[in-house]
Specification:
The protein is an alpha/beta fold. Helices cover 21% and strands 23% of the residues. The chain has a six-stranded mixed beta sheet with strand order 10-9-8-11-13-12, sandwiched between helices. Helix 2 links the parallel strand 9 and strand 10. It is globular and about 70 Å long. It starts with a strand and ends in a 7-residue tail after the last helix. The structure holds guanosine-5'-triphosphate and zinc ion. Pfam families: RsgA_GTPase (PF03193), RsgA_N (PF16745). This is Small ribosomal subunit biogenesis GTPase RsgA.
Length: 293
């Protein structure tokens, strides 16, 4: 049978075969199958046993894989932002969007607190760049149906800066989450750098959401060891211009005859997106070659 690992606890992998029943599986032989241990999110072939437990036979090829938390096959990363307090720095959005794009994971931009501020500039920036972009309010419920639609039938993880309303949104989508909602200062004791355990949670709507219990956010602060020259491909709206720069190997930072810079000047690429690219490019250049895989 085919299924998906929703959680892993002490050597057991809880596999959902699609009927909502979780089968506690052990790996066949050792728990490492094909050299790599199973991850939450893995699509697997398993054999149910008579006693209700099961055996994991095979891990199917992964779409992507994250280390912190350790999870595979995230279809989309829902980046929650806000134009009200706290105002989201576009660089934070662009950083996680770039990571998602580099991992074959669809970014969805979701601007919360639209009851307080419509965040017109953020909204237009990400729409124009070609991302699914939504406006919601966890407070009034506006846009939540659209968000439900955007996550239906997919495996999604939510991320966003502290206080933008991730817990509030997840609670509004699924009251049984009962995540703690509060002022930023109430939550500082949680230890941001402790190891995060992750589970996938099937909402009543059928959507699957990555949940890091006790935390509302999916942590993407992984060290990125991406080469600077690969970064351009993680800014999707640059694509039409990349072949048109005067010099091959153009870094699109300040070269003469750069088609990306010309597009920024012409208003076709948002200056904030390009500024984030330059910042990430400079960071990537500082990583010494020997540290890269
Ligand atoms: N006006 C308004 N307030 C909101 C909305 N969503 C959340 N809030 C408030 O914003 C504050 C922070 O919300 P949380 O849901 O705790 O934010 P979070 O992103 O989970 O925060 P962290 O757990 O620190 O990452 C709370 O006081 C919420 O009541 C919204 O749509 N409109
Ligand atoms: Zn260029």
């Amino acid at each position: 049978m085919e299924g998906i690992i929703l959680k892993a606890i002490s050597g057991f992998y809880y596999v959902d075969g699609g009927d909502g029943v979780l089968v506690a599986c052990r790996g066949r032989g050792s728990s490492a199958i094909r050299g790599s241990p199973p991850l939450v999110g893995d699509k697997v072939i398993f054999t149910p046993l008579d006693n209700g437990a099961g055996i994991l036979d095979e891990i199917l090829p992964r779409r992507n894989e994250f280390q912190r938390p350790a999870v595979a096959n995230i279809d989309q990363l829902v980046v929650i932002a806000s134009g009200a307090i706290p105002v989201t720095d576009p660089f934070l959005i662009d950083r996680v969007v770039s990571i998602a794009e580099g991992r074959n994971c669809q970014p969805v931009i979701c601007i919360n607190k639209c009851d307080l501020d419509a965040a017109e500039e953020l909204y237009q920036t990400y729409r124009a760049a070609g991302f699914p972009t939504l406006r919601v309010s966890a407070e009034t419920g506006e846009g939540l149906e659209e968000l439900s639609g955007a996550i239906a039938g997919k495996v999604s993880a939510f991320t966003g800066n502290s206080g933008v309303g991730k817990s509030s949104i997840l609670n509004a989508l699924e009251p049984s989450f009962r995540l703690q909602v509060g002022e930023v200062s109430d939550k500082l004791g949680r230890g941001r750098h402790t190891t995060r355990h992750v589970e996938l949670f099937r909402l009543r709507s059928g959507a699957i959401v990555a949940d890091t219990p006790g935390f509302s956010s999916f942590d993407t602060e992984e060290i990125e060891l991406r080469r600077p020259e690969e970064l351009q491909y993680t800014f999707r709206e640059f694509a039409p211009y990349l072949e048109q720069c005067r010099f091959t190997g153009c870094s699109h930072v300040k070269e003469k005859g750069c088609a990306v810079l010309a597009a920024v000047k012409a208003g076709e690429i948002a200056p904030s997106r390009h500024a984030s690219y330059v910042r990430l490019y400079q960071q990537a250049k500082e990583v010494p070659e020997w540290e890269r895989k």
